[in-house]
Amino acid sequence: MTAASAILLAIALHVTWNLLARHVPARQEFIWWALAGHLLLIGPWSLAILAVEARWDATLVTCIILSGAALAIYFLGLRVAYRHAPVALAYPIARSAPLFIALVSALLFGATFSPAGIAGIVISSLALLLLGATAWRVDARRAIAPALLAAMATTVYSLSDKVAVTHLPGLASQFGYVTLGYLVAWLALTVALRLESGHWRPRQRPPAGLLAAGALAIGTAYALVIFAMASLPAAYTVALSNGGIVIAALLSVFWFGEKQHRRSRLFWTAVLAAGLGLVALAH
Description:
The chain has 283 residues and is mostly helical. It contains 13 helices and no strands. The longest helix has 27 residues, at 58-84.
């Protein structure tokens, strides 16, 4: 499998689980169930392979801790943001991390990027923010801070993943790495649920078919992005994985018939696609 094919498949799976999360009632806590499904279906065998195949040292352990904590913050931030704003606003903001990733990579690790790559990252990040703004509503102000927190968390776990991938020899061990991070995130969501509702799990669950699809997609998409990082800079990889937002935005307009700020949404979707095209050409 090439990095390009891994990113394309990751995009398809990313769109799948996010559309499922978008159309499942919030009270069913789709992300909680999807993470639990991943841990049940993929967790046991992937952890066994990780234990045997990974090159264990202090660096890998540190990456696991950092990624797990950042993933917990990411999902908690999204969960709060979605309570105050639609996914069409909160999610693009949360996914504007490639610009932060590029800046931190350059400052801390001395990473360099081509002019086309930098231009593509800046354009796509700006387009994500303005695409999200097309879904603005009066009470959405309270979603901005948690969505930006999710973007910061994405920066942390993406850079950590870029370091960790050198210790993970294949996709199977990368699945195990994802499982450890998701375990921490799922536990954090469980504690948050307990504090809010007094229950250790949601009182409702999504339909079995949707739950199975989400469980298989949510971890596979992430593992494929990590796989692509073995040969691509983290900023490029995360930026290209945002191609799923282009697809989701087009589906929301043409398939689901969402008419709010239709022209602006299509315009910024086109700008986002153009920015991602520059990133693709940069490597």
